[in-house]
User: Fold this.
Amino acid sequence: MPAKQLQPDPQQEALEWFSVLRQPGCDETQRQAFGAWCQVAQNAHAYAELEAFWQQLQPAPARPRPRPVTVRRSHLGKWLALVFLLGLGAAAYLYWPLMQRLASELHTDTGERRSTRLADGTTLSLDSASAMNVDLRGRTRQLHLVQGQVYLEVMLDGRAMEVAVGNARIQVYGTRLQVARHANHDELVVLTGKAMVVQAGEQRLVSAGERVTFDDTRIGPLQKVDLKTIDSWRSGRLKAIDLPLGQVLERLARYQGQRLWLVDEQVAHRRVSGDFNLDRAGETLQSLAAAQHLQLHRVLGHWLVVR
Assistant:
């Protein structure tokens, strides 16, 4: 169930219509519904702005090479062009994760959690700002975690299951596991059964009660986990027992749709314990920052700077 109700947002709805209209299965009924939605001036304006932004991201069509002409260009024009390109790049950097989520088959909004039962009987629970694609048609069931975190209760039906996470593949041999994508690494926790992480010729077998982290270059060592607290986020709590402070701050920031920036990287390695409320992430962040003698600065609504 959603952790909270969000007010209708023309920009958010415009992104969702943008994704729907580009799907191969978009039919006339959906297009008529889109036309009715555009009758509201605020909605039409939001979609027009998104369409214009998308056109700017598209590569320009090839043109015949003009004859060489010697032109004296002012430095002001170069600086303006540079500022424009930097602004365009910043906008793409900020909104690409959201557009990537909306283009995925299953996704959740910021602060939302959702459970879904797949056609094969497998149940998955998506954390805040998470996205996943599913393909159950082949002899090997394929899942792809694009963003965020997912908890899986796998139905064993005689077919293999594989979860793609970046460049790594997780071969599932058990029934309950949790996979997460963090800022600088990915993570697998097995609650029951076993799973194998395979990447670039390296592999690691993970058993029940064990956790492993991995990135594009290596797979870390196995670690024991507390199974009583590992999936507490499904009920809106983050129960931390001697966790790195950076990981706790990142989770709370993500529940507000913000990216974490630590001015002092040493802060990330502090160890903390506690029971943190994910559904009131803003209040929880303020309390945690006060206890750790940190200052929080929100920049443009997208970054959380911690000093």
